[in-house]
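haha ok so turns out i had the wrong file open the whole time. this is the CORRECT one, sorry everyone. sequence first:
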Amino acid sequence: MKAVSTTEDDSNLLVIILDTNPFVWAECAKSQTPLSLDDALRQVLIFINAHLALKYNNKVVAIASHVGHSKFLYPISDDEVSKHRVGGQRNANMYPNFQFVTDQIVASLQELLSDTDVSFLQKDSGTASMITGAFSMALCYINRVTKNDEVGHIKPRILILSLSADSAFQYIPLMNCIFSAQKAGIPVDVCKVYGEETAFLQQAANITGGIYVKVENPQSLLQYLMFAFLPERYARNFLNLPNQDQVDFRAACFCHKKIVDIGYVCSVCLSIFCSWSPVCTTCKTKFAFRPIANKGSKPLGPPRGSPSLSNSNNPSPSHA
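then structure:
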């Protein structure tokens, strides 16, 4: 990961990617330790207010990873602010900035859930959350903000609150986002609220130097957020934060979009396939191979005038 110097005077930009998949939240609400989206949102809003209260120049961005698309929950455009009538009533017992952020996130999320389109069910991705779309939006926003920061005091980080399982169809764009974050020196933290472990997000936290935490009790989500993800990048140098004992580095094949343990890797473009093919479907490279000779006959050599065969041109099985 790119080395980035941090100081206690830095302004911390926290980009939160919230998985708003209604199907997974419905399962989570019926689990052994139930947690509904409303209860989770209340705890996330408390965490956001705590982040803003740590320092006067701290910033926060909230992006929803929904089914079929992604959307900014905060900040939103002026037209949407007037549309939702955000900030109409003030609570005297609440800090105005906290209330403004809370009202925008709640209003944007209500509109998102009310306008959910079911046309995505006909696509290959099914009911998977668009984590890659939200990830790309977060990187683009961070790039725009840091470009305008000539002094370099803004230190961004990304926090993904995930419930959905890995989507093999999003493997390639997700890995592109992970390596982009690594090159830019942006740590990606992952809080797995519900469901099985996600191999791809484990790799994201490991590659970018972030934190990966699997929540054992979803009802205690706020406690996990406060103790593991609230400290800023400078404070993490002095804290003993959770680390990953084991990371699942399995990949998804490019042909059938399935997670594989052992696959074939193209020696030219490094594409991964679950079965051998004489031609790489990604870069169209034709692999030279020697046909198996019949029993009792002499092995066939390369035709006269042709270059000698090399093992580097053949796709070899590799652990993903």
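Residues 187 and 213 are 14 Å apart (CA to CA).
again sry for the mixup
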